[in-house]
Fold:
Amino acid sequence: MSSGRCRVAVLGSGNGTNFEALAEAAGENWQIVVAGSDKPTAPLLAKAERRRVPRFSLDPRQFAGRDAHEKAMVAELEKHGPDLILLAGYMRILGPRLLQAWQGRMLNIHPSLLPAWPGLRTHERVLEAGDRMHGATVHFVTAELDRGPRIVQGRLSVRPEDSPPSLARRVLRLEHCIYPMAVGWYARNRLTMDNALALLDGKPLIQPVIVEESACA
Structure:
């Protein structure tokens, strides 16, 4: 990691609420140095502009293929020298070029209690299955989608009256709580990845750290 504060890049495709939560939490240990998107009109970019965070968008439709797009992404990111890449609603599956460039230095947040419900429509799937618990997971990014080593999970009890929109709102609050927590651990050199395991304070996280909904109120 570079000297001084940990330099963080945030990639997203959507509204950028996790970007805002991360920007609010940044401080003496880490700073957001760039925000990027594959969607030129993503609200994330407008939020970054308001916070005077450098930003860029690279529309994959303007490139010959995924590798060409990712080559441009890597070049754009490297201009800002990030120590850590954060995926925050980035809706593209990453290829080897990005994964290799930041192996062990890239985190994602996913709206389920992984390994349950990787992929999309997590809130609907939880309700259809009758699950009693739901939440969000921060994990290291690896080549296997949503299967990287888990770091921390925010957990809530599904209520009888919950719907996909109500679960989405509740889970998003958990995301805003646990993502900055994981970034803080990384920035203070407490969190690493080694041999496909997440390590916190040098000890393997066989199970992720659990944060209950009440702690994120």
